Amino acid sequence: MAPKRHAASTTSAAPSTPTPAPTTPKLSSGPATLKTNASAAEIAGHVWQQYASTTPQRTLLLDAFMAFLVLVGGLQFVYCVLAGNYPFNAFLSGFSAAVGQFVLTASLRMQTSDSEQGTGTSHERAFADYIFGSLILHFFCVNFIN
Amino acid sequence: MRWCLALLICCLAVVNALSSSGSRLLAILEDTEQKDLYSTLWADLEARGYDVSIESSKSEQLALFKHGERAYDHLLILPPKSKGLGPSLTPKHILDFMNKDGNILLALSGKTATSSAISSLLLELDIHLSTDRSQVVVDHFNYDTLSAAEKHDVLVLQRPGPLRSDVKAFFDGEGVLALPRVAPQTLGDSALLSPILRAPATAYSYNPKEGMPAAEDILATGSQLNIVSAMQARNSARFTVLGSVESLEDKWFSASVKTPSGKKTSTVNREFAKQLTAWAFKETGVLKVDKVEHRLATEGAELNPSIYRIKNETIYSIEVSEYVYDKWVPFDVPGDDALQLEFTMLSPFHRLTLQPTHRTDTSTVFSTQFVTPDQHGIFSFRVNYKRPFLTSIEEKHEVTNRHFAHDEYPRSWAITGGWVWIAGLWSVIGGFLAFVIVWLYSAPVTDTLKKTQ
Amino acid sequence: MAPSSLDVVLKGSSGRNTRGLLRVIILCTIAAAAVSSRLFSVIRFESIIHEFDPWFNFRATKYLVENGFYSFWDWFDDRTWHPLGRVTGGTLYPGLMVTSGVIYHILRLLTIPVDIRNICVLLAPGFSGLTALAMYLLTSEMSDSPSAGLLAAAFMGITPGYISRSVAGSYDNEAIAIFLLVFTFYLWIKAVKNGSIMWGALTALFYGYMVSAWGGYVFITNLIPLHVFVLLCMGRYSTRVYISYTTWYALGTLGSMQIPFVGFLPIRNSDHMSALGVFGLIQLVAFAEFIRGYLPGKQFQKLLTSMVLLTFGLGFGGLVLLSVSGVIAPWSGRFYSLWDTGYAKIHIPIIASVSEHQPTAWPAFFFDLNFLIWLFPAGVFMCFQKLKDEHVFVVIYSVLASYFAGVMVRLMLTLTPIVCVAAALALSCILDNFLVASTPSTETKAKATTEDKSLRSARNPVVGIYSWFSKSVVVASVTLYLLMFVAHCTWVTSNAYSSPSVVLASKLPDGSQFIIDDYREAYYWLRQNTPDNAKIMSWWDYGYQIGGMADRPTLVDNNTWNNTHIATVGKAMSSREEVSYPILRQHDVDYVLVVFGGLLGYSGDDLNKFLWMVRIAEGIWPDEVKERDFFTARGEYRVDEEATPAMKNSLMYKMSYHNYQSLFPAGQAMDRVRGTRLPKESPQLNTLEEAFTSENWIVRLYKVKDLDNLGRDHSNAVAFDKGLKRKRATKRKGPRVLRTE
């Protein structure tokens, strides 16, 4: 059963969700349905199922990169908590690189994940913008880490 | 012509001392007929190279200054009988003379009352005379039995030793001095004053005409009374007060004296007069800084830069000479004294003893090495050496202590703690590059999703 | 019907070209008007840097141009704040100097050697032309009407609120900062409308440039997150908002941390925490939207509420914990005083004493903005009619800027752009409706149920105006207002904001102009008659000017970064000579400069500022300097015979009135500022001697005497020189003090 979209959406005219809301309902009647009083684990499982089956490959690539960035950022943060934050500028630079890249990649995902061209820009233009932003980010980070 | 040359050489041979600050000496006597009483003194002074001019204080051509400059380098004032020293020797003129680096030796006498002009002049210098200005020092244990058997007003004293353990002695030696009719002085609190010869503990002063003063009017007693006092101004001009002018007379230069408890001996007044006039007119006790150098402790560093950085190794050296009668010799810091360097910004951050590192023929080089403090600002190298009887050394050189430049901090790869984050950053950049390559080779998102997976 | 020749020009594609060309011409004219209206002081006096702060910027720019960028970046200034020095390279906003330096080098590269002084003087007018252009771009994003942009550009070009800080010669950070502010906002609006990373990155880059230029960048740092937050609260989350905000935050914050003066503030300071908070919030909202696509409604609601509560609690608690433990610095004093207006007077008197930090009087709004101020609320209301994302921005900016402009006079400057935008919107709406030659058609049912996000109350259909009479009346009155606006702006610029304040001009009784050039006279005396390293002590107001014009090291200057040092100077000025002299000696002061307006009636002199010196000194030494001691028993602040002993013995009083009585017949010395007669005798100065007094006695310079050669007290030395006999020390009671070696 396809998730319903709110009829009177107060969001902007363009679709706001990054997911490719399928316009056709799923044919199989597998464990895609969700009872109204399902537990949290079942909700999470259902979400994962939907996600794995409906995202295109390019977007999965993006998601993999984002997961890698979360890992790198998390490791740096844990190291900072454990071993202190000297030199502070290096910590900020490394951590901000991970966070910034994550955010840029998420923006790229929003712009390219559905073929309806979510925000009105073509995928090539979005990718070019992404590279532009990333280069600026890397330049600042390398300068900051000294 | 050979006789001229011979004469010149003779003159040079006779000269075995010369003041370091000029040779024009003016002696003021009120009554110039009296100069014969001091003929040995004049002869000694001239033998040491001074041009002695003897004028009367009442003379009209007498002028201490000519066109705004000093006309003489040194002044020797013998006490007048009348009220003052004349119109061209007012206290203001005399202090101006000192402010322009002139040296003065003032002799007082207990026989006559000192004029109030002289008394107020001395008060400016914080040297106090008795209120009635006509007292004389008396000691019942150290007097000359031969000439002052009843009055006990001719003191017979040893020459003074060093003032303190860290001060060089300029007036010491064997023998006794005869000091007839001393006018006593006491010194105030000023740090510029030093006593050259103090009265012994058994001395006191009284007014011969009026007897002992009341208890609360007593000027001072014992060694608080000074017979010879010295005042060295901040520009090192010297003002010496000799309480007994008669001790400079010819007859006392080689008199025979006998204390109540001692034997008959001959005085060494002439020697003492030489030491006193040598000090008063800057033949001894004169220090000179030849050179000050400071630089970084690295090889081939520039001399005397105007900017240092915090935490730099720095070497400072100062070259000091001392003038002894007629030549400059290396200066040795006396006794347990120390020549110190202060590296100061509002208050000293370092105070270090300068060690003598090497000597030249005429000077000693003192130096030290230290690390500039971790505080940026405008600092100065200060050497402030003011000791009794030595001219003052006051050197101040301002330098800037700057902070680390942006490229003088340790680079991040040199700090082991930062490797994790450097790795993090470069892994992000590497991952980005890999991602871009893979993206460009991957298929774009198409309309029908059933075709994917 | 064959198209008339005019139709060819006015209609179709060539019509568009014509209109485009017309727009360009109009914008160029506006830029030219903006530049030329700022040149009054250059024409009347000369091309000179004005006031106080610009002199420091000028000196820094000269240093940059002479020594290169890296020397500038590492510059340790040993000619200010003697003897502490100042790490100037790391404690200023370099944007302005670097901009001037770049322009200087570009012009030299084109073999047009322009003196750096002229570049600095004319930079502000040049950038004001660019600001007008940026306003055009910004307002065109807000409204479809072509006239709105042009009107906004015209308003911004000549409005006095902006001119006050950008006349020729006012070489201060606001000269380029306002241009960058408007341009950054334009890029931000573009980014929100387009949702592209490129616009977000450009916003971040210009934001970084703005951070390097002005301390008021904190305004942008808080306004953009507030905009996003309001959009989120209104339920208007969209990917465009996410993309533009996160790109701006990530790149902008990193960029701002490259400036040494800002350093780690974006992470540490409360001023920047709202941006971080909104960043976190928008991540959560984006994630929630992402999940929502996979879940049916009810489950989503459950998940959402629990997640919201959890994260909000954690976030808020974390923030409080970090603030309390001191990891995050609280609001800095300058910005805290905007919320608690009484704070600065008690705790940071230096901030309270600056005249620009006083609250705004209501006439100032009319003075600086004229008729824009009543068009402004109308324009804001009009934004509610359309209420797209960019209009929300206008509303928020207006509210925030209005509050700040009411609190501090200096912040009128940040209000001016949005007033111009809103007023232009309102006025263009009026003109678009009233200036049409054709009669309107009556299709009222056109837009009934389209997606209207505006206020319900504003949803009336707009039809048009029929009557010629009303059209002509309205158009005529609007034209009249516009003409009066121009006249007002020009008059205000000419009379109020074009004074160099280094050179004062007044009128003699017969109407001819009387130039008072005392400041420069004194500074040039210093420059030509004192050794290169002579240290000058004066009150901090004049520090930058002394450094710039006299080129001598100063003790304190307008940067006011070290309150204790300023308090030391205040203590030296307000204590008796015996206390001040050791302070002067310790700080190696050679000359003391004091400003005295008593002869001319110049009321900005140091005696009028004296109580601030006392207050600041009292803040550090409450036992030694007491403000109460300077007021008479009746509570008055007097300088004549009834002045308190503390006042009469203070160094400032003595320096101001030394020898003043010699100008007047005996007993009639008059201080024209305080309006009182002064005591017959001139105060006696022992430790200073007068070095220079300017022509109208406005600037007086005193040389600090060296220690007395004979070790005497200075008062005794002066008495001896005057011929007074020194009295013997009085007999001391009690045991004698013996002299030891």
Automatic annotation (TrEMBL), chain A:
Compartments in which it is found = Endoplasmic reticulum membrane
Keywords noted in UniProt: Endoplasmic reticulum, Membrane, Transmembrane, Transmembrane helix
Q: How does it sit in the membrane?
A: Multi-pass membrane protein
GO cellular-component term (any): oligosaccharyltransferase complex
The domain of life is Eukaryota
Main location (coarse class): endoplasmic reticulum
Location of the region described as Disordered in the Swiss-Prot/TrEMBL record = 1-32
Transmembrane regions listed in the UniProt entry: 60-82, 88-106, 127-145
The record's comment on protein family reads: Belongs to the DAD/OST2 family.
Would you tell me the protein name for this molecule? Dolichyl-diphosphooligosaccharide--protein glycosyltransferase subunit OST2
TrEMBL record, chain B:
- Ranges where the OST48 N-terminal domain occurs: 24-280
Q: Which UniProt keywords apply?
A: Endoplasmic reticulum, Membrane, Signal, Transferase, Transmembrane, Transmembrane helix
Coiled-coil regions listed? none
Q: Kindly give the InterPro entries that the UniProt entry links to this protein.
A: DDOST_48_kDa_subunit, OST48_MD, OST48_N
UniProt cross-references to Pfam families, sorted A to Z:
OST48_MD, OST48_N
Membrane association type:
Single-pass type I membrane protein
What does the entry list under GO cellular component? oligosaccharyltransferase complex
Alphabetized GO MF terms: transferase activity
- Where is this protein found? Endoplasmic reticulum membrane; Membrane
Signal peptide range equals 1-17
Residue ranges constituting the OST48 middle domain according to the UniProt record? 301-442
- Segments crossing the lipid bilayer: 419-441
What metabolic or biological pathway is this protein involved in?
Protein modification; protein glycosylation
Q: Which GO terms describe its biological process?
A: protein N-linked glycosylation via asparagine
**Per its UniProt record, what PANTHER family does this chain match?**
DOLICHYL-DIPHOSPHOOLIGOSACCHARIDE--PROTEIN GLYCOSYLTRANSFERASE 48 KDA SUBUNIT
Role? Subunit of the oligosaccharyl transferase (OST) complex that catalyzes the initial transfer of a defined glycan (Glc(3)Man(9)GlcNAc(2) in eukaryotes) from the lipid carrier dolichol-pyrophosphate to an asparagine residue within an Asn-X-Ser/Thr consensus motif in nascent polypeptide chains, the first step in protein N-glycosylation. N-glycosylation occurs cotranslationally and the complex associates with the Sec61 complex at the channel-forming translocon complex that mediates protein translocation across the endoplasmic reticulum (ER).
Subunit structure of this chain's protein: Component of the oligosaccharyltransferase (OST) complex.
**Which protein are we looking at?**
Dolichyl-diphosphooligosaccharide--protein glycosyltransferase subunit WBP1
Origin organism is: Penicillium chrysogenum
Record lineage:
Eukaryota, Fungi, Dikarya, Ascomycota, Pezizomycotina
Automatic annotation (TrEMBL), chain C:
Every copy of the Oligosaccharyl transferase STT3 N-terminal domain together lies at 22-422
Q: Where is the signal peptide?
A: none
Any GO CC annotation of this UniProt entry: oligosaccharyltransferase complex
Which Pfam families does the annotation name? STT3, STT3-PglB_core
Reaction(s) the record says it catalyses = a di-trans,poly-cis-dolichyl diphosphooligosaccharide + L-asparaginyl-[protein] = N(4)-(oligosaccharide-(1->4)-N-acetyl-beta-D-glucosaminyl-(1->4)-N-acetyl-beta-D-glucosaminyl)-L-asparaginyl-[protein] + a di-trans,poly-cis-dolichyl diphosphate + H(+)
Pathway linked to the protein: Protein modification; protein glycosylation
GO molecular function terms attached to this record: dolichyl-diphosphooligosaccharide-protein glycotransferase activity; metal ion binding
Q: Where in the cell is it found?
A: Endoplasmic reticulum membrane
Q: How does it sit in the membrane?
A: Multi-pass membrane protein
Q: Which residues form the STT3/PglB/AglB core domain?
A: 536-585
Q: Which UniProt keywords apply?
A: Endoplasmic reticulum, Glycoprotein, Glycosyltransferase, Magnesium, Manganese, Membrane, Metal-binding, Transferase, Transmembrane, Transmembrane helix
Which GO biological process categories is it annotated with? Answer: post-translational protein modification; protein N-linked glycosylation via asparagine
InterPro entries, per database record: Oligo_trans_STT3 (IPR003674), STT3-PglB_core (IPR048999), STT3_N (IPR048307)
EC number(s) in its UniProt entry? 2.4.99.18
Q: Where do transmembrane segments lie in this chain?
A: 21-43, 91-107, 119-139, 145-163, 175-191, 211-234, 246-267, 273-295, 307-331, 364-384, 391-409, 415-437, 463-487
Which cofactors does this protein require?
A: Mg(2+); Mn(2+)
Q: What class of enzyme is it?
A: transferase
- What function is annotated for this protein? Catalytic subunit of the oligosaccharyl transferase (OST) complex that catalyzes the initial transfer of a defined glycan (Glc(3)Man(9)GlcNAc(2) in eukaryotes) from the lipid carrier dolichol-pyrophosphate to an asparagine residue within an Asn-X-Ser/Thr consensus motif in nascent polypeptide chains, the first step in protein N-glycosylation. N-glycosylation occurs cotranslationally and the complex associates with the Sec61 complex at the channel-forming translocon complex that mediates protein translocation across the endoplasmic reticulum (ER).
Name of this protein: Dolichyl-diphosphooligosaccharide--protein glycosyltransferase subunit STT3
Origin species: Penicillium flavigenum
